[in-house]
């Protein structure tokens, strides 16, 4: 089986890092406001540190995203074929979208 | 998001956080565009295999969907890792995120096993200094408790 192209794990990592950074900042803000109320500041630093991921998990995540895209195209292609079309159009995507989102 | 009423802090740092948010949005847009490039190549490959053509707006749509999915996935993974008491996400978390779909979970697991079998050379390289890591790890483990 030839190697198909997939998402770059580094790109996936950057997306994840962005989300985690945002969440960590939010947590930090929440802790800060809690701390002002409770005046307990000892435990704040450890929980606001952002999460990180190992390399294999990122590869697996890119695979998951690739499967998502591939599945969307394949299902839409099936519908398009059934309708006798050679081009996948919006209506075909609309038909498969609910089940696709339920499956992921 | 629930408490949108402006507090003193928000009013103070309003300007700074606006600039920050704009910057963050710019970064997100950049990532979304890069993500789209990969989606295009995957989608066109896949369509070629089916003997189909895909109109460009559809690919854009799927790409945005996948991007949203990726953001959601990252939140899930973070929660799973934290629930397990870890700071880092590993492969089990990713497989767990697909637990609703047995077939998907199975295919991810086989991909995960492939990665593991492909990796032994890398693993061995890393195992050259496991003792050093072993020494560091207990410290790292201890700090969250104190």
From TrEMBL, chain A:
> What InterPro entries does this protein's entry cite?
CENP-X (IPR018552)
Q: Tell me the keywords, alphabetical order.
A: DNA damage, DNA repair, DNA-binding, Nucleus
**What is the annotated localization of this protein?**
Nucleus
Asked whether the UniProt record includes DNA repair among its keywords, one would answer yes
GO cellular component terms listed in the entry, alphabetical order: FANCM-MHF complex
The record ties this protein, via Pfam families, to: CENP-X (PF09415)
One GO BP: DNA repair
Query: One MF term in GO for this entry?
Result: DNA binding
Tell me its family: Belongs to the CENP-X/MHF2 family.
PANTHER family membership: CENTROMERE PROTEIN X
Q: What is this protein called?
A: Centromere protein X
Q: What is the species of this protein?
A: Solanum pinnatisectum (tansyleaf nightshade)
Automatic annotation (TrEMBL), chain B:
The reply on keyword ATP-binding is no
Source organism, top-level taxon: Eukaryota
Q: Where is the composition biased (Basic and acidic residues)?
A: 131-146
| Sorted UniProt keywords | DNA damage, DNA repair, DNA-binding
Gene Ontology CC annotation, any one: FANCM-MHF complex
Could you give a single Gene Ontology term from the biological process aspect?
resolution of meiotic recombination intermediates
Q: Please give one Gene Ontology molecular function term for this protein.
A: chromatin binding
Spans annotated as Disordered:
1-23, 119-146
- Extract the Pfam families matched here: CENP-S (PF15630)
Respond yes or no to whether keyword DNA damage is given for this record.
yes
Family per similarity comment: Belongs to the TAF9 family. CENP-S/MHF1 subfamily.
The UniProt entry, under PANTHER family, shows: CENTROMERE PROTEIN S, CORTISTATIN
Q: What is this protein called?
A: Centromere protein S
